[in-house]
Structure formats: structure tokens, C-alpha cells
Design goal:
Elements: E1 2-5, H1 10-21, E2 26-29, H2 46-61, E3 65-74, H3 95-105, E4 115-125, E5 132-142, E6 158-160, H4 172-178, H5 180-188
The structure holds inosine 5'-triphosphate (ITT) and magnesium ion.
Inosine 5'-triphosphate binds at residues 7-9, 12, 41, 68-71, 85-86, 95, 118, 151-155, 179, 181.
Organism: Fictibacillus solisalsi
Cofactor: Mg(2+)
Pfam families: Ham1p_like (PF01725)
Length: 196
């Protein structure tokens, strides 16, 4: 069994490969597809963007697909970067620049006001059928500096709630136990038949 994930983010692909392997399912992504389109993320919510990405790719290749729209929501700055997480510091999707921008905006925010969460919205789209959308959250707070080298995106500045570790200090096994992406995928577990 194989499922197409409608994403070009290599960090997401690795996590899906790991989580789907436990279910005996192989994963491919738009990184394996020549000339895959760049779907414009014009939505104002994770769910709208997840739907846009999944439906465009499902209709184009006439296959069931899963898309992932995710990001970091920080309370002290009005929920930013939110749906702009990938391109917060510019269109070139530079994780380091994105984190630097967040750290800079959060420099004078005291510890108890640094609460944040990762959100992951997954959409399952099938040609000619209704799209299914699920969401997972992972609570935490924003560190004052980057620590750790695992994971991707904002992981080095995200302190996991109830620990003194950033998400980037966790092993992939640990992250995939508690992450927003793992929680969202768990909600799809009894709907896997939609994909095959
Ligand atoms: O749209 P696709 O092709 O899937 O890839 P993308 O990188 O553009 O993905 P999004 O539009 O969903 O943007 C989400 C951004 O949020 C961040 N992000 C999402 N999940 C994360 C995670 O588990 N850890 C750290 N950062 C994460 C990361 O910077 C992503 O680029
Ligand atoms: Mg994107």
C-alpha cells in the first residue's frame, strides 16, 4: 500500500514515512513527482489551505491524496506566524530567517507570556468525493534561542510543554509520539480505507 502526500516539505515527508511505516504503508510525495505544481496557499486558515492543496493534487493526478497545512501559533503576537509560518521572513522559506524573526519579535516578552502551539491540519481528498479534514495541536512555548538539531522548521525554538527541551532536541520517535502531526494522523487512523 502506498499513499501520496501532497507536500514538497522534506521534513514533513520524513515524519509521514516514519508514522505510516508502522501501519505498513509506503509514502511518496510531490518531491518524487516531476513538474508537480506549486499550489497557491490563498486561504486564511490551515483547513482552507490543506483543502486547496489536497483537492488540486487529487484532481490533477486522479488519486486520493493527503495534504498537510501546519504552522506555529504564538499567543503574544496575535497568533502569528500562523498560516504564514513557511514564508514568515520572506518567500524563500528559510527556516533560520523565520526563527530569527520570531525570536526578535519575542525578545522582550516574559516567560509566562510566551505560550504557543504547533497546529497540523490534514486533508484527505479523493476525486469526486467529499474531502475529510482533521486537526492536531501540540502545546508549548517559545524559547529565547535556538537549541537542538533534529526535526525541521521552528522545532529549535519550540519548548515542549512540561519539559525543558525544544522539539529539535527530541528524537524522531519522541517527536512522533507527541507532535501535532502525529495527533492529527491518529484522528485519521480509522479512516485509512478512504485512501486505498
Ligand atoms: O505546503 P507544503 O508543500 O506542504 O510545505 P510547506 O513547508 O510550505 O508547509 P506549510 O505551508 O504547511 O507551512 C508550514 C510551516 O510551518 C512550520 N512547521 C510545520 N510543521 C512543523 C513542525 O513539525 N516542526 C517545526 N515547524 C513546523 C514549517 O516552517 C513549515 O514550513
Ligand atoms: Mg506551503
Amino acid at each position: 500500500m502506498k499513499v501520496l502526500i501532497a507536500t514538497k516539505n522534506a521534513g514533513k515527508v520524513k515524519e509521514f514515512e516514519f508514522m505510516f511505516a508502522e501501519m505498513g504503508v509506503e509514502v511518496s510525495s510531490l518531491l518524487d513527482v516531476e513538474d508537480a505544481p506549486e499550489v497557491e496557499e490563498t486561504g486564511t486558515t490551515f483547513a482552507e489551505n490543506a483543502r486547496l492543496k489536497a483537492e488540486e493534487i487529487a484532481n490533477l493526478y486522479n488519486l486520493p491524496v493527503i495534504s498537510d497545512d501546519s504552522g506555529l501559533v504564538i499567543d503574544a503576537i496575535g497568533g502569528r506566524p500562523g498560516v504564514f509560518s513557511a514564508r514568515y521572513a520572506g518567500i524563500e522559506k528559510d527556516d533560520d530567517k523565520n526563527m530569527d524573526k520570531v525570536l526578535d519579535e519575542m525578545r522582550s516578552v516574559p516567560e509566562h507570556e510566551r505560550t504557543a502551539r504547533f497546529v497540523c491540519t490534514l486533508a484527505v481528498a479523493r476525486p469526486g468525493k467529499a474531502t475529510v479534514i482533521v486537526e492536531g495541536h501540540c502545546e508549548g512555548s517559545i524559547a529565547y534561542k535556538k537549541t537542538g538539531s533534529h526535526g525541521f522548521g521552528y522545532d529549535p525554538i519550540f519548548l515542549v510543554q512540561g519539559t525543558s527541551n525544544t522539539m529539535a532536541e527530541l528524537t524522531k520517535e519522541e517527536k512522533n509520539q507527541i507532535s501535532h502531526r502525529a495527533k492529527a494522523l491518529a484522528k485519521l487512523k480509522d479512516q485509512m480505507h478512504l485512501l486505498f
